[in-house]
Write a sequence for this structure.
C-alpha cells in the first residue's frame, strides 16, 4: 500500500467450515515468531452460517489497518473456486493466487436460481494479469493425509513457501496452534503443501 | 511476553491483570469472546446473565460491594442495559466498574449500526476506545484506574474490526486488588429525587475534572497514554480514534495525528493547540459525526462528514477514495481490463440455516400455511431468506411477541388466527417473557412459537438459564419453559418435535385457531450440538423422482439440483457429506422418491 511498503498482504477466502481461521492463526503466529508486527482479521457470527468467509493476514515492520485494500493483495489463498473469483480483484499487479480446485455450491446455485461459473481458473488467470496462479486439488492431498479436514493445512503449506519465514518456524507455529492429537496429521498436510511442485520463485 | 490475541481476548487479559473478580455478560457478536476468555481465568467469577440489563446490574452490585467488575455486551445490548447505565453514572462505584460495548459498523452480524459513543455523551460517562489488541489490554487497566479515581463507571468502546482482529500483545502480571470495604451510603446509592439531584451536580463536576486529568495524562497506569499526538508534516492534521485511526494512518501517511484514546469527554485544550495553524484538519470517524460536531462547537474548522459517509464501515479503500479520489492498488485498472468482472456473474453466498437445523421445518410449515410471522433475533432470522422467506419482521431481542400483540390490537382478533411470533429459547428468556406477560394480561389471542434448540446458537453455543448449565459448563438449576408459559397464564402449551412436520402443522393450525393465547415449544437441540452422532441419511430414487422440486421448499444445502450442461430438466441429488438425516425432505416428497438409507 502507499503508506506502507514491506507489509505482506494475504487474503484467505473460502466458505464457513473450511478451517480458514485456523490457517490464519498459524500464519499470524509464524510471522510473530519472525519478529514482524502482525494483524489477522477474523469473521464471526452471521457470516459463519455457510456464507463466504474471508480472513486478512498482514505482517511487516508496522501494520495499521487489519484489512487489505483492493489491488494490494500479495497472496490470495482461495479455499474454494467461486470465493477465489470473488476476491481476485484485490490482487496487486504481479500478485499470486493459490487456488484450491474445490467447488462448494452456494444456496442460489443449489436451488437452481443461479449458475456456478465455469472455467474459474481461466477467468482468475486472466484477471490476475501479470500475477501467477498455482492451482491444486488440496482436498485429495488432505484425504491422503488422513482427513479431509486438513485441506486448510495443505493450502497453508503451499502459501508458506512464498513467505519470508523458514520451514522450522512454520512447524513451530503449527505446533502452537494445532491441538496436540491432530498435530502429526497437520504436519504431514503442511509439508505436502510446502513441497507441492509449483513455481519456486519467492518475493 | 508477546502473544497474538484477538482484541476481545486482550480485553479479557486486561480484566485479569486489573484484578477483576466479577465478570458478567449476555452473548452478542462481536463481544462474546470477551467473557468466554475470562471464563478461563479461575480467579474471576463469571456468568451469562439472561440479558444485558441484568448483567450490568450484577456487575454494578459487585462494584458497589467493593470488587472490580466488568460487563461486556454488543452495541444493541447497551440499549437493554441503558436503564441502569444512566443512573449508575449518578451513584458512581466503589470498586472499579468497566462496561465494554462492541459496535458493529457495517452490520456483519447485527440489526443496526448505532454508534455507542452517544451513550457516553448522554449518560455523562467517560469512554475509552482502543485501536488494536495491545490497546485493548492497556485501556482496560486505564479504565479501572479512572473508574476508581473518579468514582464512575467507565465505558470502553470496541468495533468489530478491533474486537475480531488478532494483534501482538505484551502482557503483564495480575494485580492484587483487595476487596474494598462496603459502607452504607444512601446519599450515594439510593437515587430518590433529593439524593439524585445532589449526585447530578457531582457528575458535572466529575466530567470537568476528567477533561483536565486527560489533558495531562494524570492517574493513568505507567506506560498508558490515552490521547496521543503524532507530529508529522505539520500542515495537514487528522483527528481520529479506534479503528478509524488505523485506516487514517494507512491512507494519509506521515501527516500529524491526534489519536483520541478517550472519546468522551474530549480534551478541549489539546484540540485547540493541535489544530492551531494547520492548513487542513480532518476528523476521521466511523459512524456519526460525534467528534466533528463537538469540535466545530469549539470554533475549530474541520473537514469530516461532508466528504465521509455516515453509513457502513469506513474501510481504508473507501477513505482513500473519498479523500484523495483514487484507490491504492496498482492492479485495479488491470483487473478491470481483464476478461472483466462484469461478464462473469458471481453468485452470492448468503448465510443459510445449517443442514439438519431444527428451525427449517417450522419455517416450511409457517410459509405453507401463509401466516404472518413476527420474527426475532437469532439464527432463525435466516428464515426470512429464500426459499422459506417466512418472516415478516425482525427488530430487536424479544420484539416478536409484543409486535404480534400490537398487530392483533390494530387489525382485530381474526388477524391473530393468521399470525404467529417465533422466538428462540435464549431470546425468549432474554426479553420475550415480559412480552408474553403483556399478551396474556391484555387479552391477546396470539400464538408464540418458541424455537427451543437448547442453546444460544448464532453467537456460538453459549449456555443460558434453559440449558441447565452455567457459563463454565457446570450443572445448575434449569428454567422450564413450559412452566414459565403456564405461570404467565398461558393455558394452551404444546411441546412438538419440529422434524415431525405433520404434527407440527396440526399444532400450529390448532393454536392459531384457539380463542386464547397459546405457546408451541418446537424442541430439538441445535444440529451443531448433535455433531458426531451417526444418523441415517437419505438418497433419491431417480426412477421415482419427477423433478417436481417440492423438496427444495425447505432450502436445505444438502438437497442439490444437478444439471448437465445444456440440460433443461435437472436431477435432485442429496449431498451425503452434508446430509444429517433429519428426514424433512423425505416427508415433502409426494412420490416417495427420497428414501432413508442406513449410514
Amino acid at each position: 500500500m502507499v503508506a506502507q511498503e514491506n507489509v505482506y498482504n494475504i487474503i484467505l477466502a473460502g466458505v464457513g467450515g473450511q478451517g480458514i481461521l485456523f490457517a490464519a492463526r498459524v500464519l499470524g503466529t509464524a510471522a510473530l515468531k519472525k519478529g514482524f508486527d502482525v494483524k489477522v482479521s477474523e469473521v464471526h457470527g452471521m457470516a459463519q452460517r455457510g456464507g463466504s468467509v474471508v480472513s486478512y493476514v498482514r505482517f511487516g515492520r508496522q501494520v495499521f489497518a487489519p484489512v487489505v485494500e483492493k489491488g494490494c493483495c500479495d497472496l490470495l489463498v482461495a479455499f474454494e473456486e467461486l470465493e477465489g473469483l470473488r476476491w481476485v480483484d484485490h490482487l496487486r499487479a504481479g500478485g499470486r493466487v493459490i487456488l484450491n480446485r474445490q467447488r462448494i455450491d452456494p444456496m442460489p446455485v443449489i436451488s437452481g436460481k443461479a449458475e456456478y461459473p465455469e472455467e474459474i481458473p481461466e477467468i482468475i488467470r486472466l484477471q490476475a494479469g501479470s500475477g501467477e496462479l498455482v492451482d491444486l486439488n488440496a482436498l485429495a492431498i488432505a484425504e491422503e493425509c488422513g482427513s479431509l479436514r486438513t485441506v486448510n493445512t495443505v493450502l497453508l503449506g503451499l502459501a508458506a513457501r512464498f513467505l519470508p519465514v523458514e520451514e522450522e518456524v512454520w512447524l513451530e507455529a503449527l505446533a502452537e496452534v494445532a491441538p496436540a492429537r491432530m498435530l502429526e496429521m497437520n504436519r504431514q498436510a503442511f509439508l505436502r503443501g510446502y513441497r507441492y511442485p509449483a513455481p519456486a520463485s519467492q518475493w | 511476553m508477546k502473544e497474538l490475541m484477538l482484541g476481545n481476548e486482550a480485553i479479557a487479559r486486561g480484566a485479569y491483570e486489573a484484578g477483576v473478580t466479577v465478570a458478567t455478560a449476555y452473548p452478542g457478536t462481536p463481544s462474546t469472546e470477551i467473557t468466554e476468555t475470562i471464563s478461563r481465568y479461575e480467579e474471576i467469577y463469571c456468568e451469562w446473565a439472561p440479558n444485558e440489563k441484568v448483567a450490568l446490574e450484577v456487575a454494578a452490585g459487585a462494584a458497589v460491594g467493593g470488587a472490580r467488575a466488568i460487563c461486556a455486551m454488543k452495541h444493541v445490548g447497551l440499549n437493554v442495559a441503558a436503564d441502569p447505565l444512566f443512573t449508575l453514572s449518578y451513584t458512581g462505584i466503589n470498586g472499579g466498574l468497566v462496561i465494554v460495548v462492541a459496535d458493529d459498523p457495517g452490520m456483519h452480524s447485527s440489526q443496526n449500526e448505532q454508534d455507542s459513543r452517544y451513550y457516553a455523551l448522554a449518560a455523562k460517562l467517560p469512554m475509552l476506545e482502543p485501536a488494536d489488541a495491545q490497546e485493548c489490554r492497556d485501556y482496560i487497566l486505564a479504565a479501572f484506574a479512572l473508574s476508581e479515581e473518579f468514582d464512575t463507571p467507565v465505558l470502553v468502546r470496541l468495533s468489530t474490526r478491533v474486537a475480531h482482529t488478532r494483534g501482538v500483545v505484551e502482557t503483564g502480571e495480575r494485580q492484587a486488588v483487595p476487596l474494598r470495604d462496603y459502607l452504607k451510603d444512601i446519599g450515594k446509592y439510593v437515587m430518590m429525587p433529593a439524593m439524585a439531584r445532589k449526585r447530578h451536580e457531582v457528575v458535572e463536576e466529575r466530567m470537568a475534572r476528567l477533561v483536565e486529568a486527560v489533558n495531562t495524562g494524570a492517574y493513568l497506569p505507567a506506560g498508558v497514554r490515552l490521547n496521543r499526538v503524532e507530529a508529522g508534516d505539520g500542515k495537514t492534521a487528522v483527528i481520529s480514534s479506534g479503528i478509524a485511526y488505523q485506516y487514517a494512518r494507512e491512507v494519509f501517511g506521515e501527516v500529524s495525528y491526534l489519536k483520541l484514546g478517550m472519546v468522551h469527554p474530549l480534551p478541549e485544550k489539546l484540540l485547540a493547540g493541535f489544530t492551531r495553524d494547520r492548513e487542513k484538519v480532518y476528523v476521521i470517524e466511523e459512524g456519526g459525526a460525534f467528534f466533528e460536531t463537538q469540535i466545530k462547537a469549539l470554533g475549530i474548522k474541520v473537514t469530516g462528514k461532508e466528504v465521509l459517509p455516515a453509513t457502513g464501515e469506513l474501510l481504508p479503500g473507501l477513505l482513500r477514495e473519498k479523500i484523495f479520489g483514487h484507490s491504492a492498488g496498482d492492479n485495479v485498472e488491470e483487473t478491470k481490463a481483464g476478461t472483466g468482472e462484469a461478464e462473469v456473474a458471481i453468485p452470492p453466498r448468503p448465510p443459510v440455516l445449517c443442514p439438519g437445523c431444527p428451525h427449517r421445518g417450522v419455517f416450511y410449515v409457517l410459509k405453507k400455511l401463509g401466516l404472518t410471522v413476527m420474527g426475532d433475533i437469532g439464527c432463525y432470522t435466516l428464515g426470512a431468506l429464500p426459499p422459506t422467506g417466512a418472516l415478516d419482521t425482525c427488530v430487536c431481542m424479544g420484539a416478536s411477541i409484543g409486535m404480534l400483540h400490537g398487530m392483533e390490537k390494530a387489525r382485530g382478533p381474526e388477524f391473530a388466527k393468521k399470525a404467529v411470533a417465533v422466538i428462540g429459547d435464549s431470546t425468549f428468556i432474554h426479553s420475550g417473557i415480559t412480552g408474553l406477560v403483556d399478551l396474556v394480561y391484555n387479552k391477546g389471542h396470539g400464538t408464540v412459537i418458541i424455537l427451543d434448540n437448547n442453546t444460544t446458537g448464532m453467537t456460538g453455543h453459549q449456555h443460558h438459564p434453559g440449558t441447565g448449565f452455567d457459563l463454565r459448563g457446570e450443572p445448575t438449576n434449569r428454567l422450564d419453559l413450559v412452566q414459565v408459559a403456564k405461570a404467565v397464564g398461558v393455558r394452551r402449551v404444546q411441546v412438538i418435535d419440529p422434524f415431525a412436520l405433520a404434527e407440527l402443522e396440526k399444532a400450529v393450525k390448532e393454536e392459531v385457531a384457539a380463542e386464547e393465547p397459546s405457546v408451541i415449544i418446537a424442541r430439538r437441540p441445535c444440529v451443531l450440538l448433535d455433531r458426531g452422532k451417526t444418523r441415517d441419511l437419505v438418497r433419491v430414487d431417480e426412477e421415482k423422482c419427477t423433478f417436481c422440486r417440492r423438496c427444495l421448499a425447505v432450502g436445505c444445502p444438502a438437497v442439490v439440483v444437478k444439471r448437465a450442461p445444456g440440460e433443461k430438466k435437472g436431477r435432485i441429488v442429496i449431498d451425503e457429506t452434508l446430509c444429517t438425516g433429519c428426514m424433512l425432505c423425505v416427508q415433502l416428497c409426494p412420490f416417495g422418491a427420497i428414501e432413508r438409507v442406513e449410514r
Observations:
- Chain A has one domain: 8-194.
- Chain A is about 35% helix and 20% strand.
- The radius of gyration of chain A is 16 Å.
- Chain A touches chain B through 67 residues (CB under 8 Å).
